[in-house]
Here is the input.
Amino acid sequence: MEMRGNMGFKLSKAVVGLDLSSISDKLVQWLSYLRIIDTNNLVLVHIIPIDRVEHAAGYPVDKLIRKYEEEASKKLLKYAHYLREKGFTVNIASIEVADPAAGIVEKAKQHNADYIIVGERGGSLRRVLLGHVSEAVVELSDRPVLIVKGLVIWGEESKPLMVSATNPFSGPLIVGIDFDETLESVVGYAQLIAMKTDVKAVLVHVIEEDKEDKEAISNKMENIVMSFERKGLQAEYILYDRGSPGKIIVHEAERFKAGMIIVGYAKPGSLFRGSTSDTVIRKSKQHVLVVK
Here is the structure.
C-alpha cells in the first residue's frame, strides 16, 4: 500500500481547547512533548459555556460575560507566555459564549488548524459529565483530534488528584486499522508520527466475521507494514479473528505499554465508527489521536 508521501499529513498547527481549570494548567505543561512532531504553532481557545451564562439568574448577562472574559484573558495570557518560553508560536483566539465543543471546532476552522487538542478528565460519573466535551469535539470536528489522557485521577470521595500526563512517544504507537475511507489518513498520520519519533507502529485489525477473508486481510496488512518499512520505519501487525475492536485495541495498548493510540472515526457502518472509537476514547489510559 503506497501512501501519499505524508505530504498531505501535518500536525504543525493546533487549536488547544482550555476550560482554564487546574486540568488545563497540566495540559499546557504537557504540550511541550508535541514539539518532537513539529507542532510549533498553537491557538489557545476558551469558550464560555452558554449554560453558565443562562443560569446566572438575577445578574446582568452582559456584565457577567465581561467578568468571565476578563478572567479568561488573564489566564490565557499566562498560558501564552509560558508556551512562548517553550518555543511555541502562540495566538489567543477571541473568547466567545457558545457550546464549548462546537466553539472549539469552529475556532479550528477559522484558524485553519491541522488538528485539535483537548484534555480528558478521569473518574466515574464526574468523568462522564465533564468528558462529554472531548467526545463531542471528536464527533463534530472535520480534522484530527488528540485527546490527552492522565491529566487527573480521582481519589476517595471523587476528589481530583493532579498528576503529570505521560510522554505520548514513550512507547509503541497502536494503530487501529479499518479498511474504509479513513485508512489512508490513519496510516498517514501514523507514519508521520513514527518518522518524527522513531517509535514502532503496531497495526491492529479485527476481522469482520462473514465479511472479510483472513488471507486477503493478512495480505493487506502486510502491504501496510511494507509501506512503513520502505520509509525506514518499524511496524508489525496483529490480526484478531473475533472480538470487540475497541476493547482489543485498548488491551493491546496496555500489553505493549503504548504511548498513543490512533483510530479513525468514519461514517456509519464502519468498524471503527461510534461504539468502537468511543470505547477507545473512554477506556484507554493512553493518549488517543482520532482521525477522519
